[in-house]
Amino acid sequence: MIEIRNVIKEFDGFRALDGLNMTVPDGAVYGLVGPNGAGKSTIIRHLTGIYRQDSGDVLVDGEQVFENPAVKNRIAYIPDDIFYFSNARIGEMASFYRSIYPQFDSGRFKKLGEVFDLDPKRQMRKLSKGMQKQAAFWMMMSLRPDILVLDEPVDGLDPVMRRQIWNILLNAVSEEQMTVLVSSHNLRELEDVCDHVGIMHKGQVILERSLSELQGSVTKLQMAFEGDQVPDITGRFEVMNHTQLGKVHTMIVKGDQRELGDYLATFHPLVMDMLPLTLEEIFIYELGGENYEVKDIIL
Ligand code: ADP
Ligand code: MG
User: Fold this and answer.
1) Cα–Cα dist 65/75, whole Å
2) Is-contact 184 154, C-beta < 8 A?
């Protein structure tokens, strides 16, 4: 488990991290979302042992990360700007990681090579940004990390490769309990993959949620009834939004999904569908009118 407690980091008097708290459970795919400059890369550089916090704790399974090789050995990191030695070829970078990480899995490296259309003889610097990200992902997954940290990973990737990478990643999550922390400035990019989301703003995580919690508690319904009548459910459920287009009513309702379905069925709708909410919708409706700041950030 990753626990970040009250972390403060200043650069020349500027507070980039302002008492940041976050918790990433084992096996989670945690999306860290926030606008440019929120501090995502900065907290990631603490978690990967590059920066030392001014105060607070950066813990993996209860151990501080900074200058702790045993902990850092379990973490693989794909930064926004991929690192490589200036003229190194992909294969040479892979050999470098193999020499540093005893658990580097050459079999997996070979197997993953079939997924990526990359020649190990090519120089890293001559690859496009998206290809460099692929190469980094190829190498980092070969380390069989317990924790994979990705800073803005989809930047430059085409949709097909993006899907490939998420497939490999989610497979490792389910097969090996790998934990993933992924940052993005765009909530939509993380929509299909994350099961936990933290919203970051001005050096703090201002909202942290597990999606299963959220998705169970809010339902989107589309239904139509005979004539013009619509059952009034407001006494039993909290209707957060209601729109009508012709005969079709769309409602966002808080409350237990099964109870809601059973209750509405007693009104004999002509059609009734329960639709999954997008992450964005969940946040908007969950936050209601309360937190405009968050709304501005994630939309
Ligand atoms: P994000 O990744 O969310 O876009 P960053 O973590 O890169 O944001 O940056 C957060 C803030 O900290 C920004 O205002 C940035 O200018 C500042 N910052 C980050 N790293 C440094 C540094 N090494 N020196 C000075 N300021 C920095
Ligand atoms: Mg960044």
Assistant:
1) 10
2) yes
Task: Please give the angle made by the CA atoms of 260, 251 and 212, to the nearest 5 degrees.
Answer: 60
Going by pLDDT thresholds of 50, 70 and 90, the confidence category of residue 287 is low
Does ligand 1 lie within 6 Å of residue 186's CB atom?
Answer: no
Residue with more model confidence, 229 or 78: 78
Ligand 1 and 41: CB distance under 6 A: yes
Q: Do the beta carbons of residue 63 and residue 213 sit within 8 Å?
A: no
Residue owning the nearest CA to atom 6 of ligand 1: 39
Which single residue is written with the structure tokens 């803005």?
152
For 28, counting Cβ atoms within 10 Å of its Cβ (0-12 exposed, 13-18 middle, 19+ buried), the class is: buried
**pTM of the predicted model as reported, rounded to 2 decimal places:** 0.84
